[in-house]
Amino acid sequence: MTITTVSNEQLAKEYVDGVFEQLKQQNCHQAEFLQAAEEIFISLVPVFAQHPEYIQANILSRIVEPDRIISFRVAWQDDNNQVQVNRGYRVQYSNVMGPYKGGLRFHPSVNESIIKFLGFEQIFKNALTGQPIGGGKGGSNFDPKGKSDSEIMRFCQAFMTELYRHIGPDVDVPAGDIGVGAREVGYLWGQYKRLTKANESGVLTGKTPGYGGSLARKEATGYGTVYFVNEMLKDANDSFEGKTVVVSGSGNVSTYAIEKAQQYGAKVVACSDSSGYIYDPEGLDLAAIKEIKEVKGDRISTYVNYRPNATFTEGCTGIWTIPCDIALPCATQNEINGESARTLISNGVKAIGEGANMPSDLEAINEFLNAGVLFGPAKAANAGGVAVSALEMAQDSSRVFWSFEEVDAKLHQIMKNIYMDSKAAAEKYGFPGNLVMGANIAGFIKVADGMLMEGVY
User: Fold this and answer.
1) Tally of helices (H runs) and strands (E runs) in the chain
2) What's the whole-model pTM score?
3) From the candidates 13, 24, 137, 410, which is the catalytic residue?
4) Which GO terms describe its cellular component (predicted)?
5) Residue closest to 385 by CA, chosen among 206, 210, 119
6) CA angle 196, 149, 141 (to 5 degrees)
7) How high is the pLDDT of residue 414?
């Protein structure tokens, strides 16, 4: 009689593969969600090999299933007195670490798959910050582009009229994301107060400073991304000084990633919006970009009116053909594919910092890691925004207001801590230098241990 011994690694792989196969069967049409899950699942095999108690408690099957998904109709009236209908979502994924926390995205691409992928990533990102916040996400397929201020206000009021019953400062705390800035948060917050008759300022973050908001929140995600990349570079005896940088996008994340990179001595030569990208070989004029985007609300193509030596190219993917030392994808998911990654590598890129959510697909990530490129994954590198949102919650709860310098210093330390935790987890589980593995593992273990303490429910 032959006795077959199954290793812990084999058992762990069988468990992870089995959960993922079941997930694919149940969510076969949700490509973005499956992509996010697969990227995390791959990292967790060595964790389950060392922690059979996680398998016994079936942690993976439990954590990948949201606590609840709320879908609702949003009916609102446009300026022509026509009734329009959109769909709203809130995915409350995990409150093990604290109240559900995650942004609201208003964009025509929003669907359940997008919101689930964002919410699933948010669990681990929020855990990495060390702040007491769980994971959630929400939004609508409403497109704010081309809408009047009054139309956006009416939409936000209609959206909150349904959402308010599912949120609260100790239950679920939404914030902004693509298409939702301080203006939209203000409209949402005003409607919440009308409906609840309560001034629970901690129920929404991203508010205007002086109106319950935190200084440095607008800058936080972009600054945080650069702080994280700077830690990677320092460990490699390098820095931003004198480096050529390409940043995709031109919203808050991109703008303030550009600002901080320039403060660190880099020359940022390109950025983009949904219409195309600009290239300025002399270095971007940040004041011009802020005027175009934050004051005038124009397309990035008008930058050439400020800098005649700059060029504008329609379409976004070509931005990754520009040779650079550091690339900061800060626009949207899956903007860098395998081909773009190989182009960046062949042009000598040294470091990638993901300022957007899941901007590199799995093929691109593997290309970067195999080429030895320093790679800061989104759930670590872009955690600065939600970290400062948690700091905003703390200020609202204690009725205090911190200076920009105080918040920025706390943000800087949080990003250092995320880097060190991710680096340490990667080394502990046998993948030194692989911050994708490290961030996934470090975030997951924090939540998994909390789930074990709470028991099964």
Assistant:
1) 16, 12
2) 0.94
3) 137
4) cytosol
5) 206
6) 75
7) 98
